[in-house]
Amino acid sequence: REASQIPQRVLFYKSFMSNGSADRILIEQELHKALANEEFYLDFQPQVNLKTGKIESVEALVRWRHPTRGFVSPELFIPIAEESGLIIPLGKWILETACSQANTWKEQGLPPMKVAVNLSIGQLFQQDLVYMVQEILQRTKLEPQYLQLEITESMTMNIDHITQLLHELKAIGIQIAVDDFGTGYSSLSYLKDFPIDCLKIDRAFVRNIQHNTNDEALVSMILSMAKHLRLKVVAEGIEEVEQLAFLINGDCDYIQGYLFSKPVSAEQIFNNFNELHNRAKDILTEFKYEE
Ligand code: C2E
Ligand code: MG
Ligand code: MG
Ligand code: MG
């Protein structure tokens, strides 16, 4: 399977992370059944454009409703899916479901929205990834500019392979974002090789921004660097108005966080679209009055 092509460092990291406990092995077995049993679904979290106040994109987040365990966090099962290789069929299902949902919203009359989909490292070493993305876009009738793929900095270790792959994906017309930016222990040199559109500032930097001048300095630095590199910035995990204020002052482009909305179902995005919009507008207007 694809694992033979994944750099050794990743495999070591993964096996170090997940101990071989009985529970973990059980979860791995159950994961295999979960896809066939349709236990997975997607939630979507709105991203608010701070310049327009509009929801122009959503991030798709996979959910596992286990028949007896209940909700299992992706933080727990994604690493297991990666290690077991299940991430390949699961990742395909996620991409297809997200693209088809984006097109459904459009057909239901919502303004066009970009959908962001997280990629796992195993998928970047999947032989037919580019073909698969192309094929899914055709089949779901989603225009490529409405798909954004999120990669993480841990994927920057095999620079030549990833650079070539990202160029092929860009050639299709889709967008590329770097997720969890600043947490990956990687050098910044990939920023000049990779054809990326967007950086997502990790929640870890934003969480204490009101109380920690180091976090303030780091977020300001990321915002100004992104501007010079002509990259858009999404700040993740915004829960408080004070965090929002800091990011607006720093000229951040997009915000994603509980302050605006938690991840919600596709139906909720559709049914509550105007409410979500008005909520975003209210929060942004309130902020401007406070200025
Ligand atoms: P991520 O891609 O960085 O996703 C953002 C995570 O932050 C989501 O957690 C989201 O619910 C959470 N979040 C957003 N706003 C806030 C906030 O204001 N406060 C707090 N406390 N949290 C917030 P989630 O859905 O549990 O996903 C966790 C991670 O699991 C994701 O981090 C991603 O690395 C992985 N993941 C989730 N869905 C997928 C998927 O479809 N494919 C892959 N490969 N990985 C996924
Ligand atoms: Mg993400
Ligand atoms: Mg993130
Ligand atoms: Mg994360």
From TrEMBL:
<feature type="domain" description="EAL">
    <location>
        <begin position="24"/>
        <end position="277"/>
    </location>
</feature>
<protein>
    <submittedName>
        <fullName>EAL domain-containing protein</fullName>
    </submittedName>
</protein>
